[in-house]
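worker-03 picked up job from queue 'complexes'. Input manifest follows; two sequence lines, order preserved.
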Amino acid sequence: MNWASWSDFFSMGGYATYVWGSYGVATGLIVVEIILLRSRRRTALDQLGRSGMGGRP
Amino acid sequence: MSQPTLVIGSVNWFKYASPQAFYPLAGAMIPWFAWVAAACAITGLYVGLFVAPTDHQQGESYRIIFIHVAAAWMSMFIYLVMAFWSGVGLVFHTRLSHMMASALAPTGALFTFIALWTGSLWGKPTWGTWWAWDARLTSELILLFLYFGFMALQAAIDEPRRADRAGAVLALVGVVNVPIIYFSVKWWNTLHQGASVSLTSAPTMAATMLTGMMLMALAAWMYSIAAALHRVRSIILERERGADWVAQIAGTGRP
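worker-03 finished. Artifact:
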């Protein structure tokens, strides 16, 4: 293990901004993509539902 | 139009070129890829942040590598796959191939942006600059614009078949940029370092660093497959809404 404590871990040897800026933005964007993927599917299903049960648009 | 056939091991693989056959197959595969992606990401982050040693030159800043390299590899690879499906779509006129290419583009753009962003945050402490117009960085930026161009072009054309073809041509023309990105560090004097991992020589890094990097790369692969399959299902629903089987999905909820 490389870290003496959690604060040692979070400070990343003085590079916290760069390291956590990378991990944070990457994670955030992936979460955004997952939300967009789900909302696109919901919209697609909703539009099918609105066009009538078994009916053609 | 008669359907082409490709029979390998008594399975006609072209069967899955039909959106109707592919839709449930993709739906069944998504959870598997998603769970493997999550497992690889958790182990990879653990190895990368807790097990891998401090770099003797770069200190802790090198830990950006676990995101950066995985994202950069993925950004190039997704483009190749997107161009491949575009080519297949142009040759065989398979609608699903074009849908697959469209489904890959946003995820490719995402990883390209992450590669550029993390590269910038890594460049500042190691090179002293956020950005340089160096061959590797510039060609990766062009990759981002190619993804955006592909998506914008497809969105701008109303008729789906024409949008598919125009996008496919752009994707195929742009594929020349991928080897330029990959070999840029060899062909030109760049600020960016050479490859740390290659097929022809031993990696120039500690074993645990390499393990963490490979796990993160695998996680990015699995995530990309899951995301692209999820998106292609939405695209199928959007584009095939006139088909009876799609109308049935609307009637029965979510199969």
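worker-03 released lock.
Chain A touches chain B at residues 1-3, 9, 12-15, 17-19, 21-23, 25-26, 29-30, 33-34, 36-37, 40-41, 43-45, 47-49, 51, 53-57 (CB under 8 Å).
The CA atoms of residues 2 and 57 of chain A lie 61 Å apart.
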